Amino acid sequence: MWPALAVVLFLSIFPLVVSLYLSLSRLSFAKSGFEITFIGPTNYQTLLFGGERTHFIGVLKTPSPIGWAIFAVVVVLVGWAFTRAVRGGVRPLGLLLRAIGGLLLVGLIWLFVQAVFAPGGRPGTVFVTLIYVFIGLTIQYVLGLGLAMLATQRLPGRRFFRVVFLLPMMITPVGVGYMFQMLTDTSKGPFLPVFAALGMEGFTWVTDPWGARIAVMIGDIWQWTPFMFIVLLAALEGLDVEVTEAALVDGASRSQVFRYITLPALLPVSTTIVLIRMIEGFKIIDLPNILTNGGPGTATESMTLQAFIDWRTFNLGRSAATAYLLLILVTIVATAYVNLVRRRVTTTV
Amino acid sequence: MRNPFRRRSALDLSPGAKVLSYVLLLGWTFVVLFPIYWLAVTSLKLPIQVNSGPVFFPFIDFQPTLENWRYIFVDLRNDTVRPYINTVVVGLSSAIIALALGSSAAYALVRFHYRPRIGLIGLFAGCVLLAAVAIGLGAPWQIVVVSALGVFLILAQTIGRRFRGRGLGNSDIAFWLISQRMLPPVAVVIPLYVLFQRVGLLDTWWALIITYVATNLPIVVWLMRDYFSTVPVELEESAAVDGASPYRIFRSIVIPVAVPGLVATFLFVLVFAWNEYLLALFLSSANAQTLPITVAAQNATRGPQWWYMSVLIMIMIVPVILMAIALERYISRGILVGAVKG
Question: Model pTM?
Answer without folding.
Answer: 0.82
